[in-house]
Task: inverse folding
């Protein structure tokens, strides 16, 4: 299965790496280019994900990280994933309800 995970933080990165470990093809998209640079270099900044695990899925080709919005959109729109996951902060609203308009 192909999976795109938007947001490579404390929620998205462990999810993406585990999915890659069990055989899925995962693209991790994050707006922070520094984070993507670290991920691509095999340096995890999330305690739950050891850098060795990250390196293994990078080396196998099961996982890649990108900050390229156009590429991420092409992965979703041109070659649709089987599953897409949003794991990035949601914009708040005064009524404290989740506001997911950006996901539409
Ligand atoms: N961490 C938790 O224990 C926890 C628990 C329950 C729910 N959540 C929810 O999960 C979501 C993610 O939380 P987290 O702890 O992983 O946050 P985080 O801050 O660790 O990571 C969020 C990541 O998303 C990236 N990002 C921000 N906007 C983006 C966008 N538009 N597109 C792609 N990437 C984007 C950030 O650069 C960052 O790397 C939030 O909505 C949070 O409320 C988190």
Result:
């Amino acid at each position: 299965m192909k999976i795109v995970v938007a947001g490579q933080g404390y929620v998205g990165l462990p999810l993406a790496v585990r999915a890659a470990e069990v055989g899925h093809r995962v693209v991790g998209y994050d707006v922070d280019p520094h984070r993507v640079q670290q991920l691509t270099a095999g340096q995890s900044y999330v305690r739950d994900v050891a850098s060795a695990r990250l390196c293994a899925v990078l080396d196998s080709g099961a996982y890649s990280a990108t900050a390229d919005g156009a590429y991420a959109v092409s992965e979703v729109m041109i070659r649709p994933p089987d599953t897409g996951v949003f794991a990035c902060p949601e914009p708040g609203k005064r009524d404290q309800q989740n506001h997911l308009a950006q996901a539409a």
